Amino acid sequence: MSENRSLLRMTTSGLAWQSTGSAPMALDDEAARDALRAELGRRDHQVIFAVPGGDLRLTELKVAPEERRHLDASLPFMLEESLAEDVETLHFAWTQPDKTRCAVAIVALRWMASWAEGLGEFAATVPWVPEPLLLPWEPGEWTLVFENATVLVRSAEYVGTRIEVALLPALLEALADEGALERIVI
Q: Which end of the chain has fewer beta carbons closer than 10 Å to its terminal beta carbon, N or C?
């Protein structure tokens, strides 16, 4: 994590704020929230909400240039068959890094409402970034961060997840079938 960036993360005990080199600080009292407000006021510091990687799906799609103008309306239905939930209960955020690819983040609306409630006044003032995309990545590389019984994985420019450690061998095997791997960074 950069020295001029800190993260807001949901933990089992609630919202926590973490700067580089420091332990997470619970934001359950006014003094902690005042300290965060001060950081938000600094121009040389960015605070980001790390959207929990296990509660969203990150994927990439190949798209034709003529599909670009219809993606807002068609994207949920392009992905519908690969999703377990009804598209009406999901939020789709996307970007098009080039003319042939679309990077998509999919999350349940109920999770977004829960996070917004937990973030309170900070929900609208900090950018929300999928947790896996905060990990470093280079082509041919996967980045893994082990935390307790889970592992955060970034396997491509716009793809990653958080899974239980016990599921990691199956995920790595599936990812190995998808593309060339040169190294794993742990």
A: C
Q: What is the pLDDT of residues 70-110, one digit of tens each?
A: 787 788 888 888 888 888 999 999 998 888 899 999 999 99
* Rounded Cα distance, 153 and 164, in Å: 11
Q: Is the pTM of this model over 0.70?
A: yes
Tokens of 152: 């955060």
Distance CA 80, CA 106 (A): 11
CB atoms within 10 A of CB 152: 21
Q: With beta carbons less than 8 A apart as the criterion, state whether 144 and 186 touch.
A: yes
Report the percent of the chain where pLDDT is more than 70: 97
116: left (phi over 0), alpha (psi -120 to 50) or beta: alpha
Let me know how many helices (H) and strands (E) the chain has, helices first: 4, 12
Q: What contacts 162, CB < 8 A, 6 or more positions away? A: 52, 53, 54, 131, 132, 150, 151, 152, 153
